[in-house]
């Protein structure tokens, strides 16, 4: 029997660190917090949440960057591209920087977070906006709505 899971690839800017994703995204996000602004040198960061079981680094060794706290931000040690994050207390998930994916143009943010810190001119097409981060009890409905939206877009 062959594995029919869809594999999507991503890499840092220089190509020394590469990864693959073998699961469908759970949700796409834009974060406007000042930390993301500083780490991306941009108005916000774009990311896609995946189950950890569907994510694998296939080449290179990512280095921890950012604040070096309980939430771990991983970068390429050579080109310093921010690749993915393992959020504190969420070991079952990995938050991949959408722009590191080979098909980055397909990742439009579904939610945006930390809008209370956003630059006034920064806009996204996100369906849901949160001044901070969604509450844990909000996630089941958001994940379900994102999955339904993805399913509808694949049918058309």
Tell me what the structure shows.
- It is a single chain.
- The chain has helices at residues 34-40, 139-155; strands spanning 8-11, 18-21, 27-31, 45-51, 55-59, 63-65, 72-75, 82-86, 93-97, 111-113, 128-129.
- With 156 residues, the protein is α+β, with helices and mostly antiparallel strands.
- Helices cover 15% and strands 30% of the residues.
- Strands 6-7-8-9-4-3-10-11 form an 8-stranded mixed β-sheet.
- The protein has one domain (8-144): glutathione-dependent formaldehyde- activating enzyme (gfa) (Alpha-Beta Complex).
Strand and helix layout:
Blueprint lengths: L7 E4 L6 E4 L5 E5 L2 H7 L4 E7 L3 E5 L3 E3 L6 E4 L6 E5 L6 E5 L13 E3 L14 E2 L9 H17 L1
Parallel strand pairs: 3-10, 10-11
Antiparallel strand pairs: 1-2, 2-5, 3-4, 4-9, 6-7, 7-8, 8-9
Kindly list the characteristics that best describe this protein:
156 residues; alpha+beta; glutathione-dependent formaldehyde- activating enzyme (gfa); eight-stranded mixed beta sheet; three-stranded antiparallel beta sheet; 11 strands
Q: Give me the count of strands.
A: 11
**Termini distance?**
30 Å
Counting copies of identical and different chains, the oligomeric state is: single chain
How are the strands ordered across the major sheet? 6-7-8-9-4-3-10-11
Q: Share of helix among residues?
A: 10-25%
Taking all Cα atoms into account, the compactness measure Rg is 15 Å
Identify the overall geometry.
globular
Q: Count of DSSP helices? A: 2
Structural class: alpha+beta
């Amino acid at each position: 029997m062959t594995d029919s899971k869809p594999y999507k690839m991503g890499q840092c800017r220089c190509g020394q660190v590469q990864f693959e994703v073998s699961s469908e995204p759970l949700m796409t996000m834009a974060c406007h917090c000042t930390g993301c602004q500083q780490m991306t040198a941009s108005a916000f960061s774009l990311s896609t949440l995946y189950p950890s079981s569907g994510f694998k680094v296939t080449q290179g060794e990512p280095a921890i960057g950012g604040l070096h706290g309980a939430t771990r931000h991983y970068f390429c040690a050579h080109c310093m591209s921010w690749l993915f994050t393992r959020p504190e207390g969420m070991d079952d998930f990995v938050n991949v920087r959408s722009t590191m994916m080979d098909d980055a143009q397909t990742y439009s943010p579904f939610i945006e977070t930390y809008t209370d810190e956003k630059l006034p001119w920064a806009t996204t097409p996100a369906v849901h906006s949160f001044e901070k981060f969604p509450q844990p009890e909000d996630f089941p409905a958001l994940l379900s709505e994102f999955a339904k939206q993805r399913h509808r877009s694949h049918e058309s």
